[in-house]
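Hi there, hope your week has been kind to you so far. For a while now I've been wondering how a particular protein folds. I'm sending you its amino acid sequence along with the backbone structure tokens. Could you read through the record and tell me how the tokens relate to the sequence? Take your time with it, there's no hurry, and the full record follows here.
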Amino acid sequence: MESVRLLSQRLQTGVLCMFGSGFHCSWHCRRLLQRGRSSCFPDVVASAACRPRKCRLQPQGRETLLCASYLSQQLTTDVSQATLASVAPVFSLMKFDKEGNISFSERKKTELYQELSLQARDLRFQHQVSISPRNNRIIMRMDFLKAVVTPEYLLILDYHNLNMEKWLFQELAPQLAGEGQLVTYSLPFEFRAIEAILQYWISYLHGRLNNLQPQILETLDALVDPKLLSVDRSKVHILLQNGKSLSELETDLKVFKETILDILDEEEVLEELCLTKWTDPQVFEESLSGIDHADEMELLLENYYRQAEDLINDARELRVLIDDSESIIFINLDRGKLRGNAGSGSQNSLK
């Protein structure tokens, strides 16, 4: 890296003033001046008080401390810049505008948050599920779905995910352009973007439940039948795996529901989510004349809060069925063991 190469040129033996051991070398400073490298560290050379005599170790004084301080700062700055330049994450971006037009690009994190007038921490996506207004932007995360909503466009970050492929390439653009089934089509763009993301996520969670429900019911029917002479242990393993998946789904539903509830409890956050209200004077005047966008946002979020509650109740019913069936499954397992032992005893007696 160029910055590292330049740094290594600067840190010659004569420039590193042995600040670690508490001494500095005047002779090396003189050599540095003779080679015309004083421009690299002008403050250090000026403060080193170099003398045209043989190299000798001198006790650490004010000059040495200044030299060490300057070198330490220079080393930290140059190496940090080189490291950031080499490891800065690159986001693959999919951009949707109001008309449903799509464009693709790649941006380093540093470039992206500057373009969006955000801070670096805003794009860390620390929480698995979050909806956060920041500087007239909305940062959203639904697990693997990461997005930034502005009054003019929607950015999907790191869009290479099989779960989102159909939605991104077939459904999202028409929804944002007002051709879908969104209830917010007559409201500003950020409403459509938020609704589209929430609709996708609740559909994704619903799909996971719909996939688990028939598997669990079928497995339970096979395990609790009183006519069974033996229990298929492989089905017990399947039930355990499905039970684990159900627990994960319940957790995701709970986090989603609580995230929305936190916003509903904060009137200021609801206001901040209405981006266009604060950037378009006409929209602001309309809100004052009776069209309250914060109320519209509240209704939108309440709708998905209720949907999350319904899914939680359905998942809870499945959990109750599993818990209630455990005792019967254990009885059938014990019955199978007894029959197996009895069969072995009969064979031994025949012998």
Remarks:
- The longest helix spans residues 293-350.
- The mean pLDDT is 77.
- The domain at 162-350 is CATH 1.20.58.340 (Methane Monooxygenase Hydroxylase; Chain G, domain 1).
